[in-house]
Design brief:
Elements: H1 18-40, E1 43-48, E2 52-57, H2 60-67, E3 74-75, H3 76-79, H4 84-87, H5 97-107, H6 113-131, E4 139-141, H7 142-159, H8 165-181, H9 188-193, H10 195-200, H11 202-223, H12 234-240, H13 251-264, H14 267-281, H15 284-295, H16 300-312, E5 321-323, E6 327-329, E7 332-334, E8 339-342, H17 344-347, H18 388-405, E9 408-410, E10 418-421, E11 424-427, E12 432-435
Parallel strand pairs: 2-8
Antiparallel strand pairs: 1-2, 3-5, 4-12, 5-8, 6-7, 9-12, 10-11
Helix pairs in contact: 6-7, 6-18, 7-8, 7-13, 7-14, 8-11, 11-13, 14-16, 14-18, 15-16
C-alpha cells in the first residue's frame, strides 16, 4: 500500500500537547490544517483527544488509496465514533465490514434517480414557501432559514408527512437537539467526555429521548398503515426492506438510520447553501450570470456554482479511516489504530489542481467535471455519502428558486469568515444578506 520504503516513524506534526491540539481543532480546524501544511507539507500528524493519532493527507494519490483501500483494514465506522451519541450504534455511518454493506444496500433504493425527481417537486415547493416569508430591505441571516428549509424537506421526504402537528413536533425537537450540540459555547463538554461517555450521560440522553419519542411513534404508526406498499417516502421503503436473512429492520435500526438521514441530510446541506449565497453575493457578477442562466432554463452554471461552493467552502473538513492492522503507507510504517484522514479542505486548495484556489470561480467546473479524488466533499469509494446526490439536487432546486424570486446583496462589504460549529464549517455571520 503506497510506497514500500519506510522510515519507521509517523510524519511530523505540531509539538503541542494533545489538549492544545484538540482545543485548536474544535475551534479553528481549517486554520490548523493550513498552518501545518505550510510548515510540514502535504502529510502531517495531529493528535486529538478521544480520537488518537490522525495522519492528515492531501496528495490525491494517497486520497485514492485511502478511499479505495480494503474496508476490513480501513474502518470508516470507527473513525466516525464522534457521531455515536446522536446517531446510535446501528447508523450506517458507524458500521464497518459486512454490517455496513448490508445496511447500505437497504438504504440505497430511496435515493434512486427516479425517486429523486419526485423529491424535486417537494424541494421546489418548500423552497418557494420559505422564500416568500423572508423580509425585504433589511439585513437578514439566511443560514438559520436554510436550516429550517432543509429540515422541512428531509422530514417530509423521510416520513411522508404533510404540514401539521406531527411534523411540527419532529421539527421542533430535532432543531432543539441540533442547536444544543452545535453550540460552540458548550462544545467543550462532549469534547472532554468523548462519544462513549456522552452517549450514556443522563442529561444528554434526555434530549435524545425527546427526539426519539416522535420518531418511534411514526415508526409504530407506519407499521400499521394499510397503504404501506403504495407509499414512497423513505420510512415506508425502509419498513418494506429486508435483510439478507429475510428479517425486517428493527425499530432501533430504523431509528438510528432515520436519525442519520435527518441529521446528515439537512445540517450539512443548509450550511452549503448558506456558503453558496455568501460567495455569490460577494461576487455579484457570478450571481448575475447565475440569475440570467437559471431564468433562461439552463443548469450548467448552477451545477458549477454548487461544485465550486463545495470545493472552496467544504462543510466537513476531513474524511477518516481507522486502521485495524499495521500497514506500509506512502513511505511510512503505520501501526493499527492510526486514522488516515484525507483533508477535504487541503485537497480542494491544491494550486496544481485548482489554480488560484482561494478564488470563487465556478467557471473552472464548466469544462472540467469534478475529479473523483480531487473533489471529495462527499468522500468516495464504498463509503461515498449516500445522500450526496440528494444534497446536490436539493441545492440546485433551492438556489434556482431563490434567484428566480429575489435579488440579493451582501449586508456588509467584507466576506464572511469561516466559523466552526461542532464538526461543520459555517459562515461567521450566518450568510447575512439584504433581500430585494
Amino acid at each position: 500500500m503506497g510506497s514500500s520504503s519506510s522510515n519507521g516513524r509517523l510524519p511530523p506534526g505540531p509539538p503541542f500537547p494533545v489538549a492544545i491540539q484538540t482545543a485548536i481543532w474544535f475551534r479553528r480546524a481549517q486554520w490548523l490544517m493550513a498552518q501545518c501544511a505550510a510548515r510540514y507539507g502535504e502529510t502531517f500528524t495531529l493528535r486529538i483527544l478521544h480520537e488518537g493519532t490522525w495522519l492528515m493527507l492531501s496528495n490525491p494519490v494517497h486520497v485514492r488509496e485511502v478511499l479505495t483501500g480494503p474496508p476490513h483494514i480501513f474502518h470508516a465506522g470507527e473513525a466516525n465514533r464522534i457521531l455515536l451519541p446522536v446517531l446510535g450504534e446501528h447508523s450506517v455511518l458507524l458500521l464497518d465490514g459486512s454490517a455496513h454493506m448490508e445496511q447500505r444496500k437497504l438504504l440505497l433504493p430511496p435515493f434512486h434517480g427516479q425517486r429523486m425527481q419526485r423529491y424535486g417537486e417537494l424541494m421546489t415547493e418548500v423552497a418557494a414557501t420559505e422564500i416568500e416569508r423572508w423580509p425585504r430591505g433589511t439585513p437578514y441571516r439566511l443560514r438559520p432559514r436554510m436550516q429550517a428549509l432543509t429540515l422541512q424537506i428531509i422530514l417530509r421526504a423521510v416520513f411522508g408527512l404533510e404540514e401539521g402537528q406531527r411534523l411540527d413536533r419532529l421539527f421542533s425537537e430535532l432543531r432543539h437537539l441540533l442547536d444544543l450540540i452545535t453550540n460552540p459555547r458548550i462544545l467543550l463538554v462532549p469534547v472532554l467526555m468523548g462519544p462513549e461517555r456522552l452517549a450514556r450521560f443522563g442529561p444528554f440522553q434526555r434530549y435524545i429521548r425527546r427526539v426519539d419519542g416522535p420518531i418511534y411513534e411514526e415508526i409504530a404508526r407506519r407499521r400499521e398503515a394499510s397503504d404501506l406498499a403504495e407509499r414512497d417516502d423513505i420510512l415506508s421503503l425502509l419498513l418494506a426492506a429486508r435483510h439478507e436473512d429475510g428479517t425486517p429492520m428493527s425499530d432501533r435500526e430504523l431509528r438510528d438510520e432515520l436519525m442519520t438521514l435527518l441529521v446528515a441530510g439537512h445540517e450539512t446541506t443548509a450550511n452549503a447553501l448558506a456558503w453558496a449565497i455568501e460567495r455569490l453575493v460577494h461576487n455579484p457578477h457570478k450571481l448575475e450570470r447565475l440569475t440570467a442562466e437559471v431564468s433562461a432554463g439552463e443548469t450548467a452554471y448552477l451545477d458549477a456554482v454548487i461544485a465550486e461552493t463545495l470545493r472552496l467552502r467544504p462543510v466537513i473538513s476531513i474524511i477518516g479511516r481507522r486502521l485495524t492492522e499495521p500497514i506500509e503507507f506512502a513511505g511510512w510504517s503505520l501501526p493499527a489504530g492510526v486514522t488516515l484522514a484525507p483533508s477535504v479542505f487541503l485537497v480542494h486548495r491544491r494550486p496544481d489542481i485548482y489554480p488560484d484556489p482561494e478564488r470563487f470561480e465556478p467557471e473552472r467546473f464548466l469544462d472540467n467535471p469534478p475529479g473523483t479524488y480531487t473533489w471529495i466533499p462527499f468522500g468516495g469509494g464504498v463509503r461515498r455519502c449516500l445522500g450526496g446526490s440528494f444534497a446536490q439536487f436539493e441545492m440546485r432546486a433551492v438556489l434556482a428558486e431563490l434567484v428566480r424570486r429575489r435579488r440579493l446583496a451582501p449586508a456588509r462589504p467584507e466576506p464572511e469568515r469561516v466559523y466552526r460549529r461542532a464538526i461543520t464549517e459555517t459562515p461567521r455571520r450566518d450568510a447575512e444578506v439584504v433581500i430585494a
